[in-house]
Amino acid sequence: MPDRRRGSDRVAQHIQDAVATGALIVGERLPNERELGRLFGVSRATIREAVRRLETEGMVQVRRGVTGGTFVSQPDPGRLGLALLALIRFGEATAHDFTEFRAGFEPETAWWAAERADATARLRLSALAEDVMARARVEDLSWPEFAEGDIRFHEALADASKNPIRVAVMLAVHEAFRQASATIVRHDSSAWRIDQARQLAAVAAAVAAADADEARRCMAVHVQVNAEAVQTILESHGADGQGNEEKRQSTGVGQHG
Known about the structure:
Blueprint: H1 2-21, H2 33-40, H3 44-56, E1 60-63, E2 69-72, H4 77-91, H5 95-116, H6 119-136, H7 143-160, H8 164-178, H9 190-208, H10 212-238, H11 243-249
Antiparallel strand pairs: 1-2
Helix pairs in contact: 1-3, 2-3, 4-8, 5-7, 5-9, 5-10, 6-7, 6-9, 7-8, 9-10, 10-11
């Protein structure tokens, strides 16, 4: 069993490399199990394991029937995002780790969005920014409901960048946020929500104006404000001896936006 598993990993990696280099293209049908086994010098059982792994990762699609077979497919960004989320969880990333990452990633995503967004994407961002402000003005709106509007804005911003890798990473970051939003809720207030909404509106306005530098600056401000809030919360809880544990448990994205 160990030898066969190593063989299946090798086969799967070879196919992934072929897709990455363009030797295999999306929609192309792979040879059947017997032919693949002969090509790689492994058993059909090993080939089946490799195909199952690739199917799980969204790299191939197995179709049944007379015209069926194993076809190269394009991984869904959501699936890639969940895979990244698993790495985040098991890696025990801290709030500082995420602040450092977001300080570079999100402003650059805003820059690319301003460069590449079409009219539809600009209108969508403006509408989502207005939605966040509307949510901010509802006094009895729960924190998760408000945060969801903020998350949708950031995901739309990544979509507007037209970079599938940025989309996948943003999905992963915000899925982690949904499960770790208990941190920033301690900083929550009506004024805080309105301020957050104004920051996102500034980003949307910069994207609408195709002002990439301004979009990046506005997003940098937004990320920094959230980072400082989280740091303040963590430090205040450190005073009673709970801070280190909270830092260890937090994925660092308990900060909306």
